[in-house]
Amino acid sequence: MFYEYTLSAKREDFYNITPQIREAIAKSGIINGIAVIYCPHTTAGITINENAAPDVVHDLLIGLNKAFPDRAEFRHGEGNSTAHLKASLMGSSATIIIENGKPVLGTWQGLYLCEFDPPRNRTFYVKVISE
Ligand code: ZN
Predict the structure, then answer these.
(1) pTM for the whole structure
(2) Closest C-alpha to 16, from 46, 39, 43
(3) 43 Cα: distance to centroid of ligand 1 (angstroms)
(4) What is the 41 CA–ligand 1 centroid distance (Å)?
(5) Distance from the CA of 11 to the center of ligand 1, in angstroms?
């Protein structure tokens, strides 16, 4: 089963997409299998990280911006090489296990679409596959 979602990313941030993933799994009716969450963008990514304390994603952004500052030697004419770097680090997808109709996530884990080049309308896909 294949599902498409969009979101409006107004600022650089980690957007919690766990509710949409749970919804896609529920709609699919698949009890045991896997779900692939994929983002078809070059300046946004998908990651799994803490979903309990909002300070964690706040601190992740600070860390990423310290690790990937803009540099005069960058050549990319669009001027958003730092966004490309951060998106590559996060990756474009995540794969999660589905057991008993639910995603197998740790207590503190959530799925995020990571926006690094706002404002943009972003799309992500969820493919749910039965075992
Ligand atoms: Zn670019």
Answers:
(1) 0.95
(2) 46
(3) 7
(4) 10
(5) 16
